[in-house]
Amino acid sequence: MKISLLVPCYNEEKSLEQCIRSCLNQTRKFDQMIFVDDASNDQTPHILAKYYRQIKAVRTPHNTGNKSSAQEFGLAYITGDIFVTGGYPFL
């Protein structure tokens, strides 16, 4: 069974790397990890880009203003049989 992870984020430069590393270090590895950047205006996009080999980062065209809209945007990229979602604080 393929498990996907969906994490929306907005201006999370202070905690994003810790979150990504935690996701990568889970005992049961995720088959797919999608991070949805909700049009951040800090270093969030640059941090996500550092992990391009391990995660898929997608960006909303403009800030949606809430977590649920960012999650809904990210659903189009999910390929797993089941998915889990998280936000901050996460893992």
TrEMBL record:
Keyword Ligase included in the entry's annotation: no
UniProt keyword annotation of Transferase present: yes
Protein keywords: Glycosyltransferase, Transferase
GO molecular function: glycosyltransferase activity
A matching Pfam family: Glycos_transf_2
Coiled-coil residue windows: none
Top-level division of the source organism's lineage: Bacteria
Domain Glycosyltransferase 2-like: 4-84
Membrane-spanning residues: none
InterPro entries: Glyco_trans_2-like, Nucleotide-diphossugar_trans
Signal peptide, first to last residue: none
Entry's family note: Belongs to the glycosyltransferase 2 family.
Protein name stated in the entry: Glycosyltransferase 2-like domain-containing protein
UniProt organism field: Candidatus Komeilibacteria bacterium CG11_big_fil_rev_8_21_14_0_20_36_20
